[in-house]
Specification:
Keywords: Disulfide bond, Glycoprotein, Membrane, Repeat, Signal, Transmembrane, Transmembrane helix. Pfam families: SRCR (PF00530). It is found in: Membrane. This protein is 9% helix and 30% strand. A hairpin with a 2-residue loop joins strand 1 and strand 2. The N terminus and C terminus are likely disordered. It folds into four domains: 100 residues, Mac-2 Binding Protein (Roll); 101 residues, SRCR-like domain (Mac-2 Binding Protein, Roll); 97 residues, Mac-2 Binding Protein, CATH 3.10.250.10; 86 residues, Mac-2 Binding Protein, CATH 3.10.250. The chain has 429 residues and is mainly β.
Length: 429
């Protein structure tokens, strides 16, 4: 015997069942949800109810087109733990002060649970290799084998879907000529034909009628925008926290902001460990919306958007900032620059004598910057190569050295794509 039960919520016009305009079934009729106060906790309930994994983003202003019929819910306020959207508080069934131009939308990660009663091609996975979290060589998983993708077979619409599926921001740039290094194994023999609004690549049409040969010299690379950034500081990996939501950058309130929240941001940006958090607009007040308040991360989340938060009651005078442990400065890229260490509140450099290539590997890995592109000669830093951060390596001691700034250590990691110059590197402790 088989049983199929209907859902009381669905996502429409998003290119698949795990993204689209939110619609809820009430009294036998489908209706929409107003985007007033619609946030990631509300989206998390919808994604979980549909067996669609984690919430990746929420969208308003009828991003997926206006619905029709009644507007059933407004001012939705979920705790995030509800089993169904209907259990969340709202203004009341059919009570609202908006129209169909303000429909709420959701993008879920698309992970299908083992109990899902919806079947489609879910054999494809995707990853970005050789760069920071939201950039790298595009590889697809097909029949348990990872394969690279030819630059000629990948376009902007495909890129948008890959970035969305990986929980990153919009696609910024496509790169050919194996910009993130040549892959190994096979080159994928199919071609994605995404429309650009799908939540994951296994929902995209595909063509297997490729007429050209492609080698790993033409492996495609992709740069996606991060969903979080640190701004208003002269140094990378330090600054005011801003998050991208509904296509607009906004700030985070400092209420209850702590080192666990900061750890998630530093890791998401490939900036090592969190060192300090600053409130009261230490890096200057932001502008625009305040997207998050009383953020409550466990510290293990892959992105700040997956942390719990509430609606704010603060101003930009309370914008939060942070300092992460590792940075590369004056190199034209966050993956190249002069090595500096923060100790007792002051940045200092690393001497170029005696630090091995193994130590450089540790630095690049800590920053999420791939492999080293240029060997270095650095002073008295002794890593085994297994350390998660260069500050765990052996060294002479803080402030003990016999060199001048002319010998500051330099390093370039593979995360750097465009500059061909050789720059210095910095570390924060």
């Amino acid at each position: 015997v088989a049983l199929v039960c209907g859902d009381s919520v669905r996502l429409m016009d998003g290119g698949g069942r795990c993204s689209g305009r939110v619609e809820v079934l009430h009294r036998g009729q489908w209706g929409t949800v107003c985007d007033d106060d619609w946030d990631m906790r509300d989206a998390a309930v919808v994604c979980r109810e549909l067996g669609c994994g984690e919430a990746v983003d929420v969208l308003g202003n009828s991003h997926f087109g206006p619905g029709s019929g009644p507007i059933w819910m407004d001012d939705v306020d979920c705790s995030g733990s509800e089993s169904t959207l209907k259990n969340c508080t709202s203004a009341g069934w059919g009570k609202h002060d908006c129209n169909q131009t303000k429909n709420a939308g959701v993008i879920c990660s698309g992970k299908i649970t083992e109990f899902s009663l919806f079947f489609y091609d879910n054999t494809l996975g995707v990853r970005l290799v050789g760069g920071p979290r939201c950039s790298g060589r595009v590889e697809v998983l097909h029949e348990n084998t990872w394969a690279t993708v030819c630059f000629e077979d990948f376009d902007q619409q495909d890129a948008e879907v890959v970035c969305r599926e990986l929980g990153c921001g919009p696609s910024m740039e496509l790169l050919g000529a194996a910009a993130f290094g040549r892959g190994e194994g096979q080159v994928w023999t199919e071609e994605l034909q995404c429309r650009g609004n799908e939540s994951q690549i296994n929902l995209c049409p595909k063509s297997s009628t490729l007429t050209h040969d492609c080698s790993h010299d033409n492996d495609v690379g992709l740069l996606c925008a991060d969903m979080v950034r640190l701004v208003n500081s002269s140094r990378p990996c330090t600054g005011r926290v801003e998050i991208l939501h509904q296509g607009q950058w906004g700030t985070v309130c400092d209420d209850d902001w702590d080192m666990r929240d900061a750890a998630v941001v530093c890791r998401e940006l490939g900036c090592g460990e969190a060192v300090d958090v600053m409130g009261k607009a230490h890096f200057g007040p932001g502008s625009g919306p305040i997207w998050m308040n009383k953020v409550a991360c466990s510290g293990s989340e892959s992105t700040l958007k997956n942390c719990g938060s509430i609606k704010h009651d603060c101003s930009h005078d309370s914008d939060v900032g942070l300092v992460c442990s590792v940075r590369l400065v004056d190199g034209g890229s966050r993956c190249a620059g002069r090595v500096e260490v923060l100790h007792r509140g002051q940045w200092g450099t690393v001497c170029v004598f005696g630090m091995s290539t193994i130590a450089a590997v540790v630095v690049c890995r800590e920053l999420g910057c791939g492999e080293i592109l240029r060997p270095i000669w650095m002073s008295h830093v002794d890593c085994s190569g297994t350390e998660s951060t260069v500050k765990h390596c052996g060294y002479l001691g803080w402030g003990k050295h016999s060199c001048l700034h002319y010998y500051d250590a330099e390093l370039i990691c593979s995360g750097m794509l465009k500059s061909v110059c050789i720059f210095n590197q910095s570390i924060f402790y």
